[in-house]
Every structure is written in C-alpha cells, then in structure tokens.
Design a protein that fits this description.
The protein has about 300 residues and is mostly beta strands. It has a 20-stranded antiparallel barrel.
C-alpha cells in the first residue's frame, strides 16, 4: 500500500526530529590526519585563478610519507566566465567545458594512453537542459590462457542517456535509458511552482514498478529537505537542514545503505567540514576544509576512525 501525502509529511517531521537529535558538533583532530591536500594558486592580473597546483600528502604518525601532485588550469572567455578547466593527475587528464551561461556542458576523462575513458555531455535548448549523455569505456577481460598485448586495449562502451521533459518551464519527467533500454522514469509534482513530491519508477523485464516516493518539506525554509519511502513502505533516505548559531548543517541519512553524510557550512555558505558514517563497515571519515580571504580552498585534511573508537 502506498503511503498518503499526509503520512509522508508526518514521517518526514518525525524522521528529521530523530536525525536532529543525533547530529554532533563538528570537531576535527589534527593529530589524526592521514591525508592532506594543500593548494597553491597562480592568478591572472584580474584576480581570477590561472593555475591550482595542489599536493596531496599521506601521513603516518603525524609524518608525511608520500605525496602526489595535481594541476588544474583555468581558461576564460572574453566576458571573464570559465570556458574550460584542464586537470592533470599522474598522467591522466580531465577536461571540463562550459557554455556562455556558465553551465557545464562537457566532462571528459582521458587516460595515459589517450583513451577517453569517460565522457558526459549536457545538451540545452533555449536555456533548458534537455538531455545528459554519459559514456564509459570498460576494459574487456582478455583470454588469460592466450593473452595478447592488443587485447589489453580492447574496450566495451556503456551509454546512459537522461532526458528532461518540461511543462510550464518546470521539469515534469526525466527518463533514463542504458544502451537504449528504458531503466528509470521520474515524475515531478509541484504546488505554486515549488516541488513537493517526486515518484521514481524502475523497469524490470519491461514491467514498470514504483521504486521510491520522495516528499519535500515545504514548511522548512530550505525546500530541499525530504524523506524518501521505498516500495515496501520503509524510509530509505532522510535529508534535513539544521541551523546552529553561525553554522548550517545538512544531514542526509541513507538508511537502506547504512550511510550518513553530514555537511557543515559557515556563515559564508562555505563547506568547512564533513562527517561520513558507514554503519555497515563501522567506519567514520572526518574531513576539514579551510579557505583564504578570497574564498579559495587552501587546505583539505581528513582521517578515519572505527566507530567503536568513540566514547
């Protein structure tokens, strides 16, 4: 039996209340850091970033034991908007391309052998996103009994397409296909132009079934808070925004996966910390982010703990 909208709203309120009671303050212990990424920037004369050269250090017993260098180069159009970003990582390359409206329209990953292993293209018409095409190159498994060098360069291509349909300038439906086969359909519902619900359907052997119903909390100032109920009537995901003094906390609890992600933002809406809890693996990852006075990230540090380490 599908839960009613009233029941979903009640579940959202109760779920958020329980989640809020469990939220902890963000505390970062620098003595436990095991990875740290330090950013060093080169700027154009107008103050825009030209190059972000960062080094990721690996620590053991508070001493750096290894490091990797990443370089990100920014290119701008005549109006000063980002045109493309090229990121180099250990011989691999990632290229991001933007349109004149600052929207990402292309994301490509290229390996050391110059193979495009991943590509994502976004298409727009009259300022509206109409489709998103994602391609992966998947290495084919060679014949291990009679291996040939060229077999190690043989790939399968996987294609996923997401189409966006509109009604009165609002997204009414998205359709996802994989290799041309229908996989998912999402319906969006609005009240006075604000989304209050969406229904996600999946397809199995040509049959369509309701996978999840998501209801948004319109009473909250942040309209993105929601509760998602799966087809068995169980709460699968709860997202809530919490205000604590000068900090905004966004907590998302993926109950079915046993994962909770908590994000902490300062008064400038900058992400300053995250706590990721994996209840199945009993692991907790804590990350801290710091900025310069221009709002550029200068340092990202993280460490992990076993859940049974806590008091």
């Amino acid at each position: 039996m599908r839960p009613t909208v009233t029941a979903l709203i009640l579940l959202l309120i109760l779920g958020c209340k329980r989640q809020q009671d469990q939220i902890e303050k963000f505390i970062f212990d620098n003595s436990q850091v095991n990875t740290k990424q330090v950013h060093k920037y080169t700027f154009f004369t107008d103050g825009k970033i030209k190059i972000d050269k960062s080094i990721i250090y690996t620590y053991m017993a508070e001493k750096a034991v290894d490091s990797m260098v990443f370089t990100k180069e920014f290119f701008y159009n005549k109006k000063g908007k980002i045109e493309r970003i090229i990121e180099l990582e250990n011989g691999d390359k990632e290229l991001k391309v933007y349109n004149a409206q600052d929207s990402l329209i292309g994301n490509f990953k290229i390996n050391k052998e110059n193979d495009t292993t991943f590509s994502e293209k976004t298409f727009y018409e009259n300022g509206k996103k109409t489709s998103l095409d994602t391609r992966w190159l998947r290495l084919k498994l060679p014949d291990f009994e009679n291996p040939k060098k060229e077999a190690l360069r043989s790939f399968d291509t996987l294609l996923t397409r997401k189409e966006f349909l509109y009604q009165n300038d609002l997204i009414s439906k998205t359709i996802v296909t994989e290799q041309g086969k229908l996989q998912e359909e999402v319906l969006y519902f609005y009240k006075d132009g604000v989304q209050y619900k969406k229904e996600t359907y999946s397809f199995l052997k040509g049959l369509k079934y309701l996978k999840e119903t998501t209801t948004f909390n319109l009473k909250n100032n942040n309209k993105s808070d929601f509760v998602a109920i799966n087809n068995e009537g169980d709460t699968s995901t709860v997202k809530e925004t919490i205000r604590q003094e000068n900090t905004t906390i966004i907590a998302t609890n993926y109950k079915s996966a046993g994962i909770q992600i908590i994000e902490y933002y300062n008064e400038k809406n900058q992400l300053i910390g995250t706590i990721d809890v994996n209840l199945k693996d009993k692991i907790k990852n804590i990350a801290s982010i710091s900025y310069d006075n221009k709002g550029n990230i200068i340092e990202e540090s993280s460490y992990r703990q076993r859940l049974n380490d806590f008091r």
